[in-house]
Amino acid sequence: MSIAEQSVAQTGHVTEELPNFITLLNQWFPHSGLVHFFHYWENIVFSFLVLGLIAHRFIGAARQKSFLPKGRQNRCEMVVEGITGFVTGILGPKGIEHVPFLGTLFIYILIENFLGMIPFMKSPTSAWSTTIALALITTVYVQWVGIKEQGFFHYVKHMAGNPQGLLGLALVPIMLVINLSIEYLAVPLSLSLRLFANVSSEDKLLYKFAELTGMYWGAPFPFQIFANVLVMIFSLVQAFVFLLLATVYISLIMPHDEEHSDPQCGASSAAH
Amino acid sequence: MEFFQENIHLKEVFIQLVAFLIVFLTLKKFAWKPLLAIMKERRDKFEHEWTHIEKIKKDVAALQKDYQTHLQKIEEEARIKMQEAIQEGRRIAREIQEKARADSQASFEKAKETIGIEVEKARIELRREIAKLSLQVAEKVISEKMDGAFHEKKALELIDELEKKL
């Protein structure tokens, strides 16, 4: 059983985390329809907050269009430069066209992860619904890149395990089932579960330390500080892992010149 | 299955999907493209400037080399001309020395000749004086009748007079 499953089994719900302002509002105004609505959609509300923040900061920075960047534009360009360097380091110069998607994904996940550390806020990525949405988008994007780059026929051939000879043709249905299961089921499942489990457990960790600090009159507070630092590091790592895996999936689905003779072609499927 | 049902809310997933897609497409159009474009423009400009600087540096290096060669050539020419001037100066000095030596020799010869002439003239003049004195002595001897002591006295006077004149 995963951590999330244990949590579900023990508590019956997954919201064992620090209260956010919506839950507080819900406690203070239990009969308000609007508050109840926000409480019901609290993950969406916090996601929208993050999306709004990112859109505001980045569009504002991009509007400056100054040749000599300063302030917000400088900071945004620093982030864009870092992500571009990372993505093109793996995908090569052609990878620049995937920077907007991967960059948005990374920044979005990172800020959502960090949001849980701000008092009275919540990490939307501590909900599986959020992470599975992101994982599904990533999967669809990766497969779309595969079809676009390889062409539909080669894409299907790739999914069928590049069959050669009668045996290869005989194995096509099995290979199709395996590859499609991996690409469309295992990849989003692993991506979403990893992020969800890590972030929700981080939130639970913070909650537990806060609970302990309350119980023992502030004595475990240094440990809570330490837990905050850990959460900060893990949040960054999880966002980075998501970015890395998405980039690697794109890299694996893109056509390679040496694909026909490279034995790593099979290994790439195995890597999924 | 219960776990999935408990944690995955399809409506929420759908809204998250749509929201992310909208923000992704918006950011792609209004943030990523302009930012990447301006960064590319800046990079291209820097690369262009860098190439230009490299070209200028190469030109400067070529010019420097050219100037150095030119300078070396000028120095070589100057050195040769200096050597030639020194040689010419020495030659002129030698000529002047030789001329001065010849002039001094000629002057010396001329002076020697002039002295010889003057000595000869003085000798001739002396001879004339002696003759004149001899005549005067003879005139006195003849005009005056003098004794032996008197003649001797006169002769000595004449000799003293001659010695004084010489």
Helix/strand layout:
The complex is a heterodimer of chains A (272) and B (166).
Chain A: H1 3-11, H2 21-28, H3 33-40, H4 42-64, H5 72-91, H6 99-115, H7 128-150, H8 152-159, H9 165-170, H10 172-215, H11 221-253, H12 264-271
Chain B: H1 2-7, H2 10-143, H3 148-165
What would your notes on this structure say?
The complex is a heterodimer of chains A (272) and B (166). Chain A is mainly alpha-helical and 272 residues long. Chain A has one domain. Chain A is 76% helix and 0% strand. Chain B is mostly helical and 166 residues long. Chain B has one domain. In chain B, 95% of the residues lie in helices and 0% in strands. Chain B is rod-shaped, with a radius of gyration of 63 Å. Classes of the chains: A mainly alpha (272), B mainly alpha (166). At the A-B interface, helix 1, helix 4, helix 5, helix 6 and helix 7 of A face helix 1 and helix 2 of B.
Describe this protein with a few key phrases.
heterodimer, A: 272 residues, mainly alpha, 12 helices, disordered C terminus, B: mainly alpha, 95% helix
Please state roughly what percent of the residues of chain A sit in beta strands, choosing from under 5%, 5-15%, 15-25%, 25-35%, 35-45% or over 45%: under 5%
Largest interface: A-B, 46 and 31 residues
Oligomer class: heterodimer
Mean pLDDT of chain B: 87
List unreliable stretches of 5+ residues of chain A. Answer: 1-8, 258-272
The average pLDDT of chain A is 82
Q: Can you write the helix and strand succession of chain A as a string?
A: HHHHHHHHHHHH
Order of helices and strands of chain B: HHH
Cα Rg of chain A: 22 Å
Beta-strand residue percentage of chain B: under 5%
Q: Any idea how many domains of chain A?
A: 1
